[in-house]
Design a protein that fits this description.
This protein has one domain. It has 4 helices and no strands. Bound molecules: heme C (4 copies). One heme C binds next to helix 2, helix 3 and helix 4. The site of one heme C has 12 residues, from loops.
Length: 111
């Protein structure tokens, strides 16, 4: 069978998309339990990274809720205030990352 150049390109794109969405098929338990689906976060298609503003359509953070955190407040730190993008710490499709520990040794776990 002869695959045209265009055909090869489409095949490549298809494999790329399938690969990507397999890796991203699992979402965090807290979001699964709340019944979130892909397009609650991915408002553009094909899937692109998710802006902080999209998280804030459901989560009121951080100004209005600083008191529920243990010190130091990760959502309102002395360096960045409340302006740090969520994706510095909270990953949706993989283990979250303790960004502050690039420099500190804080012992907190990020959901
Ligand atoms: C709670 C919000 C949320 C939900 C729900 C969600 N995603 Fe994501 N997705 C993200 C974020 C944030 C990223 C950026 C990387 C990361 O945090 O892991 C991302 C990255 C991706 C990427 C990689 C895009 C890129 O350009 O890096 C793909 C593909 C993707 N998600 C697919 C899906 C699929 C498929 C579903 C449904 C099963 C889904 N996502 C559900 C938030 C979400
Ligand atoms: C469509 C609404 C919606 C969007 C968009 C959304 N979330 Fe959520 N999220 C929820 C709900 C509902 C819960 C479960 C109830 C709760 O803990 O607030 C939750 C829970 C969480 C939790 C865990 C709370 C805990 O107590 O452990 C984190 C962390 C979180 N979301 C971060 C994010 C981030 C980061 C984004 C953007 C990538 C995002 N959410 C986008 C609705 C949303
Ligand atoms: C510097 C890392 C960091 C960044 C950036 C960050 N978070 Fe968090 N987040 C945490 C940690 C750590 C927790 C666990 C609670 C704690 O230890 O105070 C948490 C908890 C949460 C929770 C659970 C609510 C609760 O009562 O604990 C939600 C929802 C959440 N983050 C949403 C967000 C959103 C939305 C953004 C972006 C606007 C964001 N976070 C940015 C580290 C971060
Ligand atoms: C690039 C390195 C770096 C990162 C990343 C970083 N810090 Fe710091 N932080 C420092 C240094 C250096 C100091 C000590 C100098 C100072 O006080 O400004 C410090 C001091 C602090 C202090 C004590 C100073 C005060 O004003 O109270 C707190 C609290 C703190 N950091 C919290 C955080 C939190 C929370 C995060 C993550 C959101 C974070 N830091 C991320 C480098 C960093």
């Amino acid at each position: 069978m002869r695959i045209s150049l265009l055909g090869k390109f489409q095949l490549f794109v298809l494999i790329f998309i399938v690969n990507n969405s397999y890796a991203a098929n699992t979402i965090k338990e807290h979001h699964k339990e709340s019944g979130l689906s892909c397009d609650d976060c991915h408002i553009s298609k094909p899937f692109e990274s998710v802006e902080t503003g999209q998280c804030l359509t459901c989560h009121e953070l951080p100004e209005r809720k600083t008191d529920y955190h243990q010190k130091p407040d990760k959502h309102d730190s002395p360096h960045y205030g409340p302006s740090l993008d969520c994706e510095n710490c909270h990953f949706e499709h993989e283990e979250s990352v303790n960004f502050c520990n690039d420099c500190h040794e804080f012992n907190f776990k990020i959901p």
